[in-house]
């Protein structure tokens, strides 16, 4: 059986030999094809990109430029495929142009396409490749005719130059581009979540404590007017107002707990998760095994993730028991919430699972749902572990699972 040549480490072929090997013939084919393909790429870059830039002062200029850059991406994809097949360059595809869920529509797409670094590098590649393609084609053709003894060495040198250009202009920059695209998309999720939380707090204040306090002020005003005329009625109104004060204080406490519970700040995840577990409609066992407290932001995300999951257990699962486990593995904070309910939970099932996954993804976390029909349901979440700022520690040691 004939074995295909193996690519050594760092995408480099074996050293050239006087007798051409399979890599040499692949390089020759690649170099001879450089000229026609680079002419096509150069004409496209000059034509479409040039016209798009020249027409930017008109209505059609920017859309044409954006479409042209997407076309340049396709040229880059073809060149990467050719380099993989003929030169053995192991190279990943760059990430696509990504829009967040908040940034939808024509203009966000237009702006993201115009500032796309992958498309612009493909344009630069097409410009550089024309003179190089002419040189590589001519040298390779002459070598095939009159420089046969040194043909493998020449083609290996030219092939290595092609490899360097592909890696330098058409490859992702050490995954940085991919991460930037993901984080730009996640930024919209964070903004949307923060805005929704602010609207919820404003609504709760307006419809709850604020309305109750307004009614309380009016009641006390009426009691003041009747104090001399009907003391008994005024006393009853003051008693009612006292009850309203207690209810308003409880609503404010509940609202403050929803923003950031004091028990979490003072005592950490173990005590805070035990508190929300006690309010669940099914028995919940809580186990927290952490060597120290994570950063406040990570601790807060973990708390509210478990809180929302336990609310789902109470509302939807029909479970008889549930459990919460929290531990650290390497540089990750792990959460797992399990219940023995009916199962069948889905990311698009209206239980907020998709929102939780987006929030965790926005901080480089992971969210995995396993909920077969009939149960049980297990949700596993990962968050990046970040050490707590020593200047902000409360001095309370984290509780450990016994």
Explain what you see.
The protein is of the alpha+beta class. The protein has 3 domains: 9-172, no CATH class; 190-259, Single alpha-helices involved in coiled-coils or other helix-helix interfaces; 266-392, Histidine kinase-like ATPase, C-terminal domain (Heat Shock Protein 90). 61% of the residues lie in helices and 9% in strands. It is built from 11 helices and 5 strands. A 5-stranded mixed beta sheet has the order 1-2-3-5-4, with helices on one face. Helix 6 packs antiparallel against helix 7. It is elongated. The two termini are 62 Å apart. The model is unreliable at 1-10 and 392-402 (pLDDT under 50).
Helix count from the secondary structure assignment? 11
Domain unit count: 3
Q: How many strands, which pairing sense, and closed or not: the largest β-sheet?
A: 5 strands, mixed
The computed structural class is: alpha+beta
Taking all Cα atoms into account, the compactness measure Rg is 33 Å
Low-confidence stretches: 1-10, 392-402
Distance between the termini: 62 Å
Name the average pLDDT: 77
Please state roughly what percent of the residues sit in beta strands, choosing from under 5%, 5-15%, 15-25%, 25-35%, 35-45% or over 45%: 5-15%
Order of helices and strands: HHHHHHHHHEHEEHEE
Helix residue percentage:
55-70%
